[in-house]
Amino acid sequence: MLPTFVRSTPDGTEQGEFLSLDLGGANFRVLLVKVVSGENRRVEMQNEIYVIPEDVMRGTGSGFFDHIAACLAQFLEKMGIKERKLPLGFTFSFPCQQTKMDEAVLMSWTKGFKPTGVEGKEVVSLLRQAIKKRGDFDIDVVVVINDTVGAMMTCGYDDQHCEIGLIVGTGTNACYMEQMRHLEMLDGDEGRMCVNTEWGAFGDDGVLDDLRTDIDRDIDAGSLNPGQQLFEKMISGMYMGELVRLILVKMTKQGLLFQGRATPELLTTGHFKTSYIYTIESDKFVNLLLMILHKMVRRLVPDVDVRFLQSQDGSGKGAAMVTAVAYRLAIQQAERKLILDTLRLSREQLLEVKERMSDAMLKGLSRQTHQQASVKMLPSFVRATPNGTEHGDFLTLDLGGSSFRVLLVRVRAGTKHVEMNQKIYSIPQEIMQGTGEELFDHIVSSIADFLEYKGMKGASLPLGFTFSFPCYQSRLDKGILLKWTKGFKASGCEGQDVVKLLKEAVRRRMEFDLSFVAVVNDTVGTMMTCGYEDPQCEMGLIVGTGTNVCYMEEMRNIERLEDDEGQMCVNMEWGAFGENGELDDFCTHFDQTVDETSSTPGKQRDCEKCLMELTNKGLLYRGKVSERLKTHGIFETKFLSRIESDRLAMRQVRSILQHLGLTGSTCDDSVLVKEVCSVVSRRAAQLCGAGLAAVVDKIRENRNLNHLSISVGVDGTLYKTHPHFSSIMQETLQDLAPQCKILFRKSEDGSGKGAALITAVACRVRQEQSEN
């Protein structure tokens, strides 16, 4: 199972002129192969046969390759292409260990060849040295192949389903396209590679002993290599004639043939040649062999539809096709790299992002520059994190869409345990678009229903209000609705304090009371949820559909507020970072396309439009842009996370693409799509890490520390479900903020449990202040 380093079969787009050098005996060929793509796709070949003299076959290695180079020069001169540097496929039919597509080390000479100083050496470099020594022409040796791979590639040009090569002649061998993840001797697990099975040696370890007959053993014993290549001896043409002769001898001795009389010729080893079988079977032999072969394969693997195609000139045309494919892949790889490199960030660029985020934070905190700042650094009016003494029953109202939650959260001091119960309620369309009074009456009616359901009718409880609409907050218990979104149009609410509207509805119902209402941001809730179990958790991060960060800032740095004592959690709203041009140096035209087609042009940039450009350049889906691919928002984050999974095979990636309506994708397409996903998500993770580095360094500098230990509460589907996002983000953060030790804690239900804990901390602080 030897890797050939051939990574793809022909896809029909290969074109150009290629040389083939077919070296496997005393006579060798040089070919010029022209591959034409498009409607008139075809392969045209011209070749010359050259002889290797006996003294060269048994002379020095340098003399041998000098002769090959001289013959190449003659051929190029005759074809009138000596001034051109063409790619060459080298069929070198001797036992080799291949280390790269264009590198092969000769293990041992066979077939009467004995040039000295070649065994154990890399043969392509020896050929290149001979060409360079002449100095009158140059070629680009792209691949070294064997004839089995050539047979597969020759048929693969006409049938793109051809992924197996089979040779049954003097010898026998097979090759096939294997998934890279199964080739444990090689690094990398993406895509496929053609494997040369060298299956002639199958059975050398004894696994065929039960099937081998006495005649098979006789043939092996009389061979030049007893005990080796046992499978080859059972099926190849080299031994088929001798196998028939031994059977005829045995049947004659038993009186079943020739009246029991064997001639001296029949008794002579090697006298019955395999060609006699071809003659006896006439022109039906090949068809009969294929029919039997096909019937047997269909019987053993009935779920697989197998077709056999006869290959023509695998060592010549096949070598050219391998070269053509390799050349296509090399050109495409260069184009892919050119496109994807625009999305790759250097360490210097990430340090610059960190520096610009630091500047944007200062502008957001400053009274003079806050209005123009892209990162608003909004005060949350949360003045402390949990200390474990919080206790009591708290309600949470989580409103952000046509369905909302009401929760009862029970916090017990000293236990670090939070008990939660919840119920989901819906808001009818007519109420969403009716009056504000109707909307808040409906919400309060639902809270009353929940309290009755919990057996707490008439209770007076503090409430955490997660209100996921654009708000301006001037106190913890005051939030001015700036604008309805998500289909809400309730009148009389915009520009009003939503806490006041909620309390007025409570008073109208007169069934229960709210002793305190805190307007809650889900990022702050994320921090507080983890802070309840980890006192060092002073940051919150959300990376999902959107992204945001909050952290505990010193009051003296929040210039828009008067108080200078203690700390307050700042809601950064960092998704808008870049709106003032801070990221223009790093934004690609993909980002600009995403930005222009988003619902908020100029706002909260991201990147995912790379696939379209790769397709337009013919590097993906054979250049065919489907209507489905043009659909905005087709590539959801959940698919990106699944595609990048280390355990996902290319077949499963193709299945995902087909589910997205991207039919007709190839394995090569799947590899490229996975690479695009990897580059896009890596950049996102690195940018997130660079931004966090600015935040943790600011906290460290605020406290005049040489080293900072801090925890971050994290929520969001991208962080939690993407297989590599978190590790890349943390690696970037550690590199850019080496004086900070950061522990990440996954948060659960920041908008529910977190909102209750914010309310619990606020009640605790109020009680402490009243006692003082």
TrEMBL record:
<keyword id="KW-0021">Allosteric enzyme</keyword>
<dbReference type="InterPro" id="IPR022672">
    <property type="entry name" value="Hexokinase_N"/>
</dbReference>
<dbReference type="GO" id="GO:0006006">
    <property type="term" value="P:glucose metabolic process"/>
</dbReference>
<dbReference type="GO" id="GO:0005536">
    <property type="term" value="F:D-glucose binding"/>
</dbReference>
<dbReference type="GO" id="GO:0008865">
    <property type="term" value="F:fructokinase activity"/>
</dbReference>
<dbReference type="InterPro" id="IPR019807">
    <property type="entry name" value="Hexokinase_BS"/>
</dbReference>
<dbReference type="GO" id="GO:0001678">
    <property type="term" value="P:intracellular glucose homeostasis"/>
</dbReference>
<comment type="similarity">
    <text>Belongs to the hexokinase family.</text>
</comment>
<dbReference type="Pfam" id="PF00349">
    <property type="entry name" value="Hexokinase_1"/>
</dbReference>
<keyword id="KW-0677">Repeat</keyword>
<feature type="domain" description="Hexokinase C-terminal">
    <location>
        <begin position="163"/>
        <end position="285"/>
    </location>
</feature>
<comment type="pathway">
    <text>Carbohydrate metabolism; hexose metabolism.</text>
</comment>
<dbReference type="Pfam" id="PF03727">
    <property type="entry name" value="Hexokinase_2"/>
</dbReference>
<keyword id="KW-0472">Membrane</keyword>
<keyword id="KW-0808">Transferase</keyword>
<dbReference type="InterPro" id="IPR022673">
    <property type="entry name" value="Hexokinase_C"/>
</dbReference>
<keyword id="KW-0007">Acetylation</keyword>
<keyword id="KW-0547">Nucleotide-binding</keyword>
<feature type="domain" description="Hexokinase C-terminal">
    <location>
        <begin position="538"/>
        <end position="761"/>
    </location>
</feature>
<protein>
    <recommendedName>
        <fullName>Hexokinase-2</fullName>
        <ecNumber>2.7.1.1</ecNumber>
    </recommendedName>
</protein>
<dbReference type="GO" id="GO:0006096">
    <property type="term" value="P:glycolytic process"/>
</dbReference>
<keyword id="KW-0067">ATP-binding</keyword>
<feature type="domain" description="Hexokinase N-terminal">
    <location>
        <begin position="339"/>
        <end position="532"/>
    </location>
</feature>
<keyword id="KW-0963">Cytoplasm</keyword>
<feature type="domain" description="Hexokinase N-terminal">
    <location>
        <begin position="1"/>
        <end position="157"/>
    </location>
</feature>
<dbReference type="GO" id="GO:0005829">
    <property type="term" value="C:cytosol"/>
</dbReference>
<keyword id="KW-1000">Mitochondrion outer membrane</keyword>
<dbReference type="GO" id="GO:0004340">
    <property type="term" value="F:glucokinase activity"/>
</dbReference>
<dbReference type="InterPro" id="IPR001312">
    <property type="entry name" value="Hexokinase"/>
</dbReference>
<keyword id="KW-0418">Kinase</keyword>
<comment type="pathway">
    <text>Carbohydrate degradation; glycolysis; D-glyceraldehyde 3-phosphate and glycerone phosphate from D-glucose: step 1/4.</text>
</comment>
<comment type="subunit">
    <text>Monomer. Interacts with TIGAR; the interaction increases hexokinase activity in a hypoxia- and HIF1A-dependent manner.</text>
</comment>
<keyword id="KW-0324">Glycolysis</keyword>
<dbReference type="GO" id="GO:0005524">
    <property type="term" value="F:ATP binding"/>
</dbReference>
<comment type="function">
    <text>Catalyzes the phosphorylation of hexose, such as D-glucose and D-fructose, to hexose 6-phosphate (D-glucose 6-phosphate and D-fructose 6-phosphate, respectively). Mediates the initial step of glycolysis by catalyzing phosphorylation of D-glucose to D-glucose 6-phosphate. Plays a key role in maintaining the integrity of the outer mitochondrial membrane by preventing the release of apoptogenic molecules from the intermembrane space and subsequent apoptosis.</text>
</comment>
<dbReference type="InterPro" id="IPR043129">
    <property type="entry name" value="ATPase_NBD"/>
</dbReference>
<dbReference type="GO" id="GO:0005741">
    <property type="term" value="C:mitochondrial outer membrane"/>
</dbReference>
<keyword id="KW-0496">Mitochondrion</keyword>
